[in-house]
Amino acid sequence: MPLPQNYIEALGRLGAAFAAYESATGHAAILVGGAAAAIHTDGEFMSADFDVVAGADQAFAEAMSASGFVADDKAVHGMGWYHPAYPAFAVEQVSGGFFDGRGERDRCLRLILQDGASIVLPAVEDMIADRLGQHEIAKGDTAMLEQARALFTLAQDLDATYLRRRISEEGGNPAHLGISEDP
């Protein structure tokens, strides 16, 4: 199931904010969580919120405002926004570092959109590890496990050593993917 057109359009608006943020700070904001899983799986798992890691709060808020986003006081995890043209999709700036400082930014993927905008996504290994870790935290909720398995199945050229390390760091269980902890 491909990503819906309005989702892609909302990502385009977010990409403009990412470009403005990167221009202002020299650092890329990173789309994480369910939205990153949705993109990595081409819509197999959808998320209506866009969780973003961006270190400079004020610069990100300014980039969001300059890109037409409006502050949303209903944000669950941190500062939040929505775009009036796409109110169904909330954007939240999550606190903390990129996977609490354990993810390697140089492994991130840049998804080029239109007009010079782009979205930066975590490496698929980081996404698999995150989803497995979230599955362990959620105890019994299989949605995160299903996402991890789909990401693992769809991925190509995985760095198995990095994947095992990241799964361990996130508290996940590699056996859920049919792999052992040790190579």
Describe this structure in words.
By secondary structure, the protein is an alpha+beta fold. The protein has two domains: 5-122, 2-Layer Sandwich (Beta Polymerase, domain 2); 125-177, no CATH class. The protein has helices at residues 5-25, 33-40, 57-66, 124-138, 143-154, 160-170; strands at residues 30-32, 49-53, 70-71, 79-83, 86-93, 109-112, 118-121. The strands form two sheets. A five-stranded mixed sheet has the order 1-2-5-4-3. Strand 3 and strand 4 (79-83) form a beta hairpin. Helix 1 (5-25) packs across helix 3, helix 2 (33-40) crosses helix 4 (124-138) and helix 4 (124-138) packs antiparallel against helix 5 (143-154). The model has no long low-confidence stretch (mean pLDDT 90).
Structural class assignment: alpha+beta
CATH class of the largest domain: Alpha Beta
Distance between the termini: 34 Å
* Radius of gyration from the alpha-carbon trace, in angstroms: 16 Å
Averaged pLDDT: 90
Physical arrangement of strands within the biggest beta sheet: 1-2-5-4-3
Order of SSEs, N→C? HEHEHEEEEEHHH
CATH topology label of the largest domain? Beta Polymerase, domain 2
Structural shape: globular
Count of helical regions: 6
Largest beta-sheet details = 5 strands, mixed
Helicity range of the residues? 40-55%
Give me the count of strands.
Answer: 7
Percent of sequence in beta strands: 15-25%
Low-confidence stretches: none
Organism: Croceicoccus marinus
Keywords: Plasmid
Protein name: Nucleotidyltransferase family protein
